[in-house]
């Protein structure tokens, strides 16, 4: 892969520089324009605050689920094409995936900007309303806040692109979406299929309730997600049940076996399942049945042990029921995340410079009413940015969630910027995590995130040291004791069928609620929602 070649090439350049009498400081010196352009970039992002609001609101209104992000694709690639980016659709075998690339001059370094775009089933909800009140009950929605990250990246990229053209700065911007992040089903395929070939640094961004960035091993778990499909034989469940072989029996026995296994797993494990096919009707012995598992542990080896144990259980369940294991399909995976120290340090300095948005009294009141509704500490909104995070000791981990940016982070220098577009206190993957996501909180937080991304892009293009330092850290420290082995094989295919039926059921019913910026200044205005709408207004003075 090209990044490996680039890596060795960088080492060679460093060696040559060190071995000659050339003043090496020349190579490492920051461009004298850097400070001036950073100040200008902040103003240029601020001028695009309406664009941030429009993208955030538009994606919120699409509410698309993983692998079905087609309105999102059409809308975002439309903006980027108009702004001179080359668009590639359907990358890595996923029809809803895309990349947008723009180069200037020699085209190096190549900086990628990524963020997830998919929503959560049944999380449909009116924004700006601090209690359960869906636009369409049971419809999908942005109950994670993935509607905001592309606004952060695109607006930052457009401001920096303008500066690169005017000031003749070399480099490439590569914008990409996290497809089906909620199923951990996209990024390992992007990596495997070379979407990031030649990328020097990947700046990922994810919604949070404060600014934050970290380096080293993150907390949370690695993950494999797999479907286990059994086949048996149908029969009349009342008149001839002895002639049937139930695939559902196999599914239920496998799930029970996993519950016994759970007692003997380490504390950091997380495993969960749903039965996606349990047969058609009770009086027909189910001929097919499918169970979908997530297996999570701190690292590749331990996660694979869980997966292998489950494969054995599937065989056992088939033996016990006279059925067959028809298919075991790996459909999602994620390595644990490891973020790049030099890039995280540069990003954190930019976070400190930008600072948190100025929250209005309405924003704080909305957050506190929401926290009261959730029964959590009424802390309002943050007033100080988080410190730079450091490595987690996995031997003491108690486990947690996963993000397939982990796979990207083991293939090139990567960081995740968390930006303050949501409120603290939600349970995650829930309607409650969507209610701020098309309000001034999301608009201001995403705008602040775009400012940080713009500053970090300028650092990477102009400071002359960070990209090389990032690769030194990646090669010499991060990879010192770990070799990346993907969970997916060369022949595994992306699970592009995910959520097809749910979106087929909902898309046309959601379409009348798509945001129309030609008629309304904000999505709140379009929906006729007074912001903030709360059940019981909290007292602002109360602690
Ligand atoms: Zn997410």
Which characteristics define this entry?
single chain, 543 residues, alpha/beta, 6-stranded mixed sheet, 4-stranded antiparallel sheet, 16 helices, 12 strands, disordered N terminus, binds zinc ion
Task: Describe the structure concisely.
This protein has helices at 2-19, 25-28, 34-47, 49-62, 70-82, 149-167, 187-192, 247-262, 300-321, 341-354, 361-374, 405-409, 440-462, 466-478, 500-510, 523-527, and strands at 86-89, 98-104, 110-116, 171-178, 201-208, 216-217, 222-231, 270-277, 288-297, 324-334, 338-339, 414-420. By secondary structure, the protein is α/β, with parallel strands linked by helices. The strands form three sheets. It has a six-stranded mixed β-sheet. It has a four-stranded antiparallel β-sheet with strand order 8-9-7-10. Strands 6-11 form a two-stranded antiparallel ribbon.
